[in-house]
Hints:
This protein is α+β, with helices and mostly antiparallel strands. The strands form 15 sheets. Strands 44-43-42-55-54-53-52-51 form an eight-stranded antiparallel β-sheet.
Amino acid sequence: MRFKFLHLLMLTCTFAAALASANENYSSELDNDPQVSDAKFKVSKDAEFVEMVPEIVQEKVKSTKKPTIAPTTKTTTTTTKPTTHKLSPALAIAPRVNNGITMRNQTKLFLERAGAIKVSEDFYLGELGYDISDDGYDWSNLNNPVAPPNVASHTAGGYVITAQRLQEIRSNLMYWYFDRDTNGGRGDYQYDIHASMTQLHKNLNFRLPFFGFIYNYTRLSLNGYLEFSDPPEYLTYPLVFPIKDYPKRRDPSFIGIWFSKCRVGRIYPTDIDQRVPGVYFRLERDLLTRTDRFGVEVRERTMWDIREGVVGAETFIPKHVIIATWKNVSFAGGIDNSLFTTNTFQMVIATDEVYTYAIFNYDLLKWSSNTEAGGDTTTGEGGVPAYVGFNAGNGTRSYEYTPYSQQMVIRDLTGRGWGNGFPGRHLFRIDEQILIGSCNKDIDASHLPLSFAPEAGNMLGGTVVNITGPCFDPKKRVTCHFDTEDVLGTFVNKNRVICVQPFLKAEGWVRFEISVGNQRFKWRGRYFVETPALATEKIFFETEDVHKKAPEQIQINWDPYNLTSNGNANIMISLWGYREVTIYPQLEYIDTIEAGLTNTGSYVIYPNNYINRNNYNNDLQFGFLQINLTNPEQYSGLKISPTLWSRPIPLGWYFNKQWERKHGLRWPEALCENWIRNDRYLRTFTGDLPLCPCTLEQAVYDKGRYRPDKECDKDSNPTCLRHKNAIHCVVSGNPVAEGAEQQCCYDRYGVLMLTQDQVWGSRPRRNHNLGKMPWNEAGKVPTLSNWFHDMRPWYSCCHWQREQSVNCETFRFERRPSQDCVGYQAPGVAGVFGDPHFITFDGTPYTFNGLGEFVLSRSVSADRRFEVQGRFEQVPKNQYGAVMATQLTALAMRGNTTTTIEVRLRPKFARWRYALDVLADGRRIYFDRESMRFQHFDGVTVYTPTYLLNQSQVVVMFDGGVGVEVVENEGYMTGRVYLPWDFINKTAGLFGNWSFNALDDLVLPDGTVANVNMNDFRQIYYNFGLKWMLADRNIPNVGTALFSRDNGRTASYYSNASFVPNFLKEPQDFLPSNRSYDVERAEELCGESYQCRYDYGMTLNADMAHFTKNYYDSLVNIRNLNSKRTVSCGVLETPRFGRKLSFDFMPGAKIAFECDEGFVLMGDQRRECLANGLWNVPEYGYTYCLREVFYTRRIAFIAIAIIVLVICPLMICIVCGIYRFRQKQLKEDPAWQMTIPRSRASSRSNLRQLSGPDDDSDTDATGTLKKTKKWDLDDEDVTSSEGDKPRQMGRRSLRNNSGTDHDLPEADEEGTAVDDEPAHEHQQGQLNDTTDASNPAAYRNQPPSPETDEEPQHNATLHQQYSPTFSAADSRNSSMNYQPNAAIQNRFGGVPVLPNNTQFFTRPPSNIPAGATSVPLRQAPNVAPLTQDNGLPSPPYAASPTPSQQRSTEV
């Protein structure tokens, strides 16, 4: 053991000594080499190193044996040192380890052996221009044949690339490829690919989108392509893809950079690049998180090459990169020295698993054709050149890179392209469609494809469009033509020009063309114009303050990278407005909100900063915010700036103070009244609008007339800013003839919301958001006219005023009232699903397994035409072989003169992103951008639901109200057609005649009805279904196919009238008896649905059976919903200045009303919707609200009217009655006089005047009743209420013995009573004259009291005092009788009360002094004694006098 150890030690020492001796000998050989003293070597002052000319280095390398590469244990460095020299040695550093030699010494030793430098012990290679990491790898050599020690790292804080390093690695045309690695391997070289095995399978382990399909593998072929499926067994030149005979012949999916039969060539020893000829393949994954040096450099180089090389890739970041290189490959079939006739090219594929880009680098091209294609055996010329392009495979589509592919100019690929400034670099986008990213100089045609991005922009303009197509020259002018507007382009480089989209008065897809120099516009494309209301939102408002009348502040945000990546750039925020005062629309600048603001992405607007503005155009009521760069040339080197626009906003926050100064504090009312006045002059537009569905369910399934409103969509925008309390709104999909738009909103209960009920109700619009042709006229501009006529007044009339204001109610009830659903008719529905099963418009189900293209439904009316066609292809095989059944794979449709729309089912592996292909006039359209969810074409609108991203449901709406819905699930498709009632008895095809009669459903093209058994599939197939098959020619009453077929295919490619499907209905009838399990499984999956059982029995596919049942149930439910009669009572108008407590208008709904404060509810307080669809008849009149002041006036007027209309006629009638009664009485008795009752009030007043204050008796000293005596007399008695004196009851009527009233005036000679005042005075004068001696006190009725009477005659004669009423004394026993006709009357017209003594007659009047003798005493009249019978009313037991004779006195 000890001996062995000593022996090993000796061997080690000997090996070390030999190694040292060899190093010294090698160094001495270099020192003695005559080349060292050659003039080509530049010796520095310090003699520490020698800089060698590259040619000498290369010669030395060729004569020096290649060093052995030892494995390394260190990882690459994470930093790089800046270098001042750009020396690129041709030889890699081959470090060694172990034996006590460090990496630094190994590098030094190797450089000295190579004769490149002579260094001291303390050296630094960075000074030489080398980029040497700690592990000895030279990163500065971009053509280094040795692969870096690549250990992928994802740790934080890794390598950070500098701008200088990025520029350095991007300065080379070819990407990295290595034929060796630091572990002694073959690097990227694929030594398994050779003449006997031309392809090699590669697992990618990630998703690679290519031409609509998606793959997780590829096959690297020696023949110049990456393939994803097997090529055909033999090739026919020139190559044509896709293979037309597919699936009989294989149609490969491939990316072909040089599709031609190749073999590995050879290189000369003198070639600079001595890497091994052959095929190289390198795969770098997960670059997003890589932090190691090589991963970072691959990511950054690829990312910037694609961003700057392909338009529309400004945000692309590669996640995975494939680098495939064909180095020095020759053509197959060559002889002699043909192996040295080689081509070198490289393909770089970068993807983020959504977008995929390809870079073709052509470094060297010496041959163009292989011998099989007719090429020369020595030079590879003369035959059909190689194919350059892309094929999707599976018989779908391809892209050939013209004019180079299979043309003699193919050699120009090395000098064309100019991708990233490199001749020979060509770039493409290849994920869904093939879009070229390089200029094309050698092509000429009348219509050349133009590549540009973005393909859509805001109608207001400012979108920067990057254009690639022709090769541009900075000395030649480029003109861009957007629809009808021209702008000049800005030259960027030979491969790119920029045009800024102008303000376009258009929407949807418009022409986009460019002209270079004096050439015509031959480079063409289609550009999508977004309406401002639906455009991509690029300026966001934090809150809804911008919609307020006078907010305190407005917070806005935007993405700063939409302007520039420079965070220090200055931007400007400005305000613009729109108006229509002439025939030409006017978009005008208003003010600069902020200038010189840093592009931070946010800003706060303070409206108070603009209150002192005085704009000349302050009549603008709505507009937009605009953001652009202040000095774009400072940051991009170009004089153009992108422009960001906000959505339309009201301008009350800016103009409110100016409007206040102009219109006063009530400026919203002034603005609204001006609009109302102008709107009343415009035409009425609601007559052409379709009626709103009554319920939300009906609205959702009326696919032909209504689509979701993006302002209030339950799936994408539930905020409903202008329709609070609504959960979903729909609008008419296409403008009506006059350009108007219907809107229907529904609340949480699915009930239609009306403006008659609330301010948030549905509002029809004078202008559709899509506008109306011609778009350049006022009132027809998309979005702008809609806001000017319909949105703007809502703010000034309602949003900025009270809901119950007069202006708001005028807006709601008169100018924009909702249309109710009375008379709404749900559309008819028919559909096809499964393999395939049909349900007609009249509900007839049947099965027809035709193979080909057929007419599903078409109009037979000449004025309103539409047509829907379907393509049916055979179902894929199952485990038992071919399936004799078909399924729906495509639909094509067209209206009268509309764009033709086609919807196709995509192949199985192409449905990863889009489930359906949609083509408009043969051109594919996509709906993955938010602003392009709704696309309008001529006479047709196409959209996908906002909640879907994979394009699996497409709705097509024609302007005639016809709708087509296409739905896909797991590769199984269904189509439904919705028709309005205008097409009743006007349809034909496989969906039958819609007549509400199932007996005439199966109408043949000649108009006759097929007599078939609906359960006999054979009869249906031959006697009905095949009659509607389309062909390449026009068939009378059937028509021509609308499908756009790829690759020159015809209808016969899909149609096969000889195809015989299965005609049996149930699985137990057509399945063998030994497959009872399949029968039971069908019953288990499907239940009662025979369509589901049939499909499962035929295909044994549970998914297909499931979706067949699902589609069937959905169609039946839709039909039941639409056929269900909806009863609606319609609009029950809300009383003005009031409200309804509920808004339902379905049968059974009870609506209560109430009024605002200060109003009174008139009419019925509640109404009810009856089962017959009518509101109950109001009992108290229609409901309305009346102001309280008007209500009071009304009551007063009613009272006056009652008086005038009731009491006055009544009084007239009474007077007339009395008059006639009097005439009758006078006719019978000319001496008759009418008794007139006395006033009770006047009698009481007289009593009080006559009563004295201290006398306790009833009379005073003169015998007159005292004034203090209180008498209570009612209509039936006279009562004394003083003390305990007995009451005298009863009514005393004073009459004479003949029964005549005492105080009535005498009748005239005609017997008529004289009761007017002059006659009375005349009568009194006669009485005074005749009775002056005996009765000088004959007075008028009711004079002043005797004590105050100062008339002369009163002083001359003693007044005879009479009481105006009766005495309290009992006069029934008195012997005096009262004579009414006596000449002596009291002056008061009262009734004299005569007691049984004469004290009243012997006493003088109170106003005559005592002792006077000249005053005669009052004589007592000679009357009959006053008794109960003749002086008082009869007691209750006595007989009452007749009314005509009764004279009552009321006190």
